[in-house]
Design a protein that fits this description.
639 residues; alpha/beta; Rossmann fold; Lipoxygenase-1; 6-stranded mixed beta sheet; 4-stranded antiparallel beta sheet; 19 helices
């Protein structure tokens, strides 16, 4: 089985051991992460982990990817249950050697790197990738690393489960809100701290995610996909949904969950990066957040997708021909057997004299002898004296699970950045790297000077970085290096308290509207409503903007947005619900806010409490943000 390159994956030319090169001419890079860092489905020289070093390396320096153990499917940190599942699934890696299994269960995860990185699996997890690098590479060499690229958290959240409307139906917000905060903030912050310790002199770049499905994803294409996934002859584990569920409602909820989760993740990841930069020790040369700025139409099934959209086994991605042979138990015979086992019916009680019983038991024994795994399925087949009747449910469950694993590995590129998406990551990383280096050098130099009162710029002078951050409420009390990450807006947050005077059954959309130098941006705050004209109610995935409620909205700004380009921020109600009802059954249309708090990049910048304010469809609530700059006032210098 192919082995993932462990060190010396050269981003600029043919591979060469760094010990054989003059490292004074190298721009040395390390990569830690999941499928996003691995570059699922993209040729090795087209993934952003290859493109970014070449894009940011200084003139005269050769980009060199010194270490990369990134893994499709990797969590930030997998648990004991994940390790048990891995050992029982990828049994061929261990060759029946119990000592290897015991070492793996004790978190010696090195053997997991023998599984081809294109194959989704939890290990080696990102924490181990970092700790292994720190343990195997000397401090002297680690001090020469110039750039550390990091991804993680998407597999900890569990995208499949999050987007499955059968999981926590009608209750996914409280179920997932805390988990997303934990993985995107707490675990990410700890991971970044570990990377800083391992790479003391590197700029650390955290690459964020995107909405795989958005409100711009074609409903008809999603329906075709749902029909294939949930009603396909080969089981996907969820095919029972089709036939007794409202498919249109399911697809609406998938969209809503995807957009909602991305907003939460952006908010908390940005917070983690800001907190890293608050301490000079953790900040080091800098921690930079790279949000790719995908727009709704760039999601899968959008009009301009930047993601692979093939969900059938004959995918068109670059890596399919290399990936398929590396999938454990993916031969036609094995897939056929798993398909049969996942749907086989057990013998009825008292069927001991069934004419096919002997043949079936013999077939099962041959299958056990021939199969390489998974361990769960072989164990289930052995129970009950080799017959299927005693362990039918265990057999069905284990066979289905392995079949799903095989099928997902076949289409592993689905919902991952394609060539256009990878180039987008490169372009954003290059722009943020350039600005960070330009500003941080000037700030560090200025802050080394003796502290003294700084003269204001003359009236009418351009706004300085410090003044801009002051005006937007994003300037802290410490070094300006803590705050320059705010120059790119990567998250909006809106917390609202709705007064008791508001209508119940509220059915009007509420938007965050941001007027910029380039034009107007509009972000839907509420999840998309469903209207039931028969009984006159609004069906909501979560009861937002209802009377006496408190709601928290976190918004991904989409395309790159510069703080300096923002002119005005408001809330605006949309048009009336598109359904006409008798007066006695009208949907609620009056919204009365009691309090509205606006945050930018997870920092509260505006807080308004209202007396009696009644907003109706198409009305606007001005948040008086940002405050205008007085043209007569001078700005501060960098300090």
């Amino acid at each position: 089985m192919a082995r993932v390159p462990r060190t010396g994956t050269n981003a600029g030319s043919a591979e060469q051991d760094p010990a054989e090169k003059d490292d004074r001419n190298l721009f040395q890079v390390v990569a830690f992460g999941d499928s996003l860092m691995w570059g699922q489905g993209v040729a090795r020289d087209a993934r952003f982990a290859h493109l970014v070093p070449a894009a940011v390396a200084p003139a005269g320096k050769q980009p060199y990817l010194f270490y990369d153990r990134s893994r499709s499917g990797a969590k930030i940190r997998g648990g004991v249950a994940n390790r048990t599942e891995f050992a029982q699934t990828f049994v061929e890696l261990f060759g029946g050697d119990q000592a290897k299994i015991d070492a793996f269960m004790a978190r010696d995860l090195d053997i997991a790197s023998d599984l081809y990185g294109e194959i989704p699996a939890t290990f080696p997890d990102v924490n181990w990738q970092v700790s292994n690098f720190a343990a195997k590479v000397s401090l002297a060499k680690r001090r020469k690393i110039n750039l550390a690229m990091v991804t993680g958290g998407g597999n900890d959240i569990g995208l499949d489960t999050l987007l499955d409307p059968e999981e926590f139906e009608g209750d996914f917000v409280p179920a997932w809100d805390g988990l997303i905060r934990r993985f995107a903030h707490t675990d990410t912050l700890n991971l970044l701290a570990d990377v800083r310790e391992a790479c003391p002199n590197a700029v650390v770049m955290l690459f964020s995610y995107f909405a795989p499905i958005s409100y711009a994803s074609s409903h008809s294409k999603m329906k075709v996909f749902a029909k294939y996934r949930f009603d396909h002859d080969i089981l996907w584990g969820l095919n029972e949904i089709f036939g007794f569920k409202d498919v249109d409602s399911i697809l609406m909820e998938v969209r809503a969950r995807s957009v909602w989760a991305l907003g939460r993740a952006m908010y908390w990841q940005k917070r983690a990066v800001l907190e890293m930069n608050e301490s000079s020790q953790r900040r080091g040369p800098g921690v930079v957040y790279v949000r790719p700025g995908f727009e709704p139409q760039n999601s899968v099934f959008g009009t301009d997708p930047w993601l692979w959209g093939d969900y059938r086994p004959d995918t068109g991605d670059d890596m399919r021909l290399k990936r398929i042979p590396e999938i454990s138990r993916s031969s036609v015979r094995e897939v056929t057997v798993f398909t049969l086992l996942s749907s086989v019916q057990p013998f009825e009680q008292g069927d001991g004299d069934h004419p096919d019983r002997g043949d079936r038991i013999e077939d099962v024994q041959e299958l056990i002898d021939e199969m390489t795994g998974p361990t769960q399925l072989k164990d289930a087949l052995r129970r009950g004296g080799g017959g299927l009747e005693a362990g039918y449910e265990r057999v069905r469950k284990a066979a289905t699970a392995d079949l799903i694993r095989i099928q997902r590995a076949q289409i592993a590129s689905f919902l991952h950045p394609n060539h256009t998406g990878s180039k987008r990551y490169r372009d954003v990383a290059r722009a943020r790297w350039s600005e960070w280096h330009t500003l941080s050098a000037g700030i560090a130099k200025a802050e080394q000077l003796p502290r003294q009162p700084l003269p204001a710029n003359p009236p009418g002078a351009p706004e300085t970085t410090g003044e801009l951050l002051d005006r937007f409420g994003l300037r802290g009390t410490g070094s300006l290096l803590e705050n320059i990450g705010h120059l790119d807006v990567d998250s909006f947050g809106v917390r609202v308290v709705t007064s008791s005077e508001s209508d119940s059954n509220f059915g009007t959309d509420v938007f965050l509207v941001v007027d910029t130098v380039q034009g107007r941006r509009r972000y839907r705050l509420n999840m998309q409503y469903r209207y039931d004209p028969i009984v006159g109610i609004v069906k909501k995935f979560y009861p937002e903007f209802e009377s006496r409620s408190s709601d928290v909205f976190m918004v991904d700004p989409g395309a790159s947005l510069r703080l300096a380009d923002i002119n005005r921020v408001t809330l605006r109600l949309g048009p009336p619900p598109p359904v006409t009802l008798p007066p006695a059954q009208q949907f609620g249309f009056r919204w009365c806010p009691r309090r509205v708090i606006l945050s930018v990049n997870s920092i509260d910048v505006s807080d308004h409490t209202y007396g009696v304010v009644i907003l109706r469809p198409n009305d606007t609530l001005d948040l008086a943000y940002p405050p205008p700059r007085d043209p007569r006032a001078g700005g501060r210098t960098h300090r």
